[in-house]
Amino acid sequence: MEKIILVTGGGRGIGAACALLAAEQGYAVCISYRTNEAAATEVIAAIEGRGGTALAIQADVSDESAVERLFAQMDKRFGRLTALINNAGMLFPQMRVEQMDAVRINRLLATNVTGSFLCAREAVRRMSTRHGGPGGSIVNMSSRAAVLGSPGEYVDYAASKAALDALTIGLSKEVANEKIRVNGVRPGLIHTDIHASGGEPGRVSRLQATVPMARGGDPLEVARAALWLLSDEASYTTGSFIEVSGGR
Fold it and tell me: How far apart are CA 117 and CA 138, in angstroms?
C-alpha cells in the first residue's frame, strides 16, 4: 500500500523537517501552507530533488472550506491518505492574559484547535475502516507549553496545545477499533522561526539554560519522534505523547 502523508504547515521549521523525513521514508508528501509559498516551494523542490513525490497546497486550516478543498486536491493527486501530521499552528507576541483581547484569542484557537479538528475529521473520513479506508495514523504536534502553561508569554498558545492534547486522547479512543492510531509530540524549546512571531527571535538562546540538556532542540529531532509514531514500529501505541524537550 502506498504511503501518503499530509503535513499541515509543512513549509518551515518542524513541519518542513517532518515532510523531508517522511519523503526519505518513502511517503508521497503533501504539505499545506497559509501564506509563505516560497518556503513551501523550497521544501517540495528538496523532496523532488531527492527523487521523492511531493505537492504543496495553499490552505488556511482555520477555514473549513479551505480544509475540504485541501483534502479534495490531495485525493485527486495521491489517493487515500494514510498519515497526517497536524502541525499548522501560530502564536502572537508575548503578553500577559490581562492584555489579551478576543480577536487574538479567537484567531489563535481557530488555527491551532479548530484547524486540527477539521484536518483530523477529514483524515478519519479517509482512513477509517468504517468508511472503507485501510486505517492510518495521526500525529498532533502539541508543545511542552501545554504542560508548563507559558506564563507571562503565551498562555493562549499553551491553552490551545492543551486542547490539542485532549483531542489526541479522545480521538485515539474513538477510532482505535477502526485501524487508526492517534498520538502526540510535545516539542520544547526548538530552533524555529515561530519565536520571531512571538517577538523574540532569540528566545531559545535566552531560555536554554533552563533545559537539563542545556541546549535548544533541532526540528529534525522532533520530526524523528513524529515519524516513529506514524510507523509500524509504534503499532501498539495510541493516545500517547513523546516529549522532545531536553528534559524541560
Answer: 12
